[in-house]
Amino acid sequence: MGILVACLPWAWRNYATFHSVFFIRSNVGLELRMGNHVGAAPTFEQMDEDPYAHYLHPRLFPTEAAKLREMGEVEYMNQAGHDAMEWIRAHPGEFLALTLQRFVNFWGGPLHRPRAASGVMLFTLLVACGLWLNLRTLTTPQRDVIIIPLATYSLIYYIVAYMPRYRAPIDWILFILVGSLVWRAISGFRAGRSVESPK
């Protein structure tokens, strides 16, 4: 409720400006199209490096910028979303493959850069261990505060092209879980040392 109340003024501003109702930003359709088209790759970085995997965006193509000015923001974004859905319906296998790769990229790091991915994968493994150890000791509301954001925040990023910064808003939860794991290890080590030390 707090989040919805905080967003109400911005939602009203959007409606007053664009005469349309949408949540926070209007560009979901554009993001969907940039990640789901002929030659799409799981990540923006890969598409930026491949001249044949380019995505349509008004900042990259003057024709798209002109179309945006002519159609208006809301209509342009709706059309981009329609284009993306048409491609997804026509290519369900490719869409599923891209979605799975984005899931792995989100939690395992950029797979096309193995060194960076190995560090992210290790960190995610520590997060999973910290989550498993902590869930048994938390109350239901405490579990909800951790599990709901982890389970729901990332969903949209499985269907749009991946960027490493997309995980930043939930990193604080992940660092807390890894920190609790480290603290448990330190506490266990100290407990072991105190038992071994002579009286």
The helix/strand order is HHHHHHHHH
- Into which percentage range does the β-strand content fall? under 5%
Number of domains: 2
Question: Shape, please?
Answer: globular
Index terms:
199 residues, 69% helix, mainly alpha, 2 domains
Describe this structure in words.
The protein is mostly helical and 199 residues long. It folds into 2 domains: 10-90, no CATH class; 109-199, no CATH class. It has 9 helices and no strands. The chain has helices at 2-18, 28-35, 44-49, 62-71, 73-90, 92-108, 114-135, 140-152, 171-196. α4 crosses α5. The protein starts with a helix and ends with a helix. The model has no long low-confidence stretch (mean pLDDT 89).
Brief sketch in words of this structure:
With 199 residues, the chain is mainly alpha-helical. It has helices spanning 2-18, 28-35, 44-49, 62-71, 73-90, 92-108, 114-135, 140-152, 171-196.
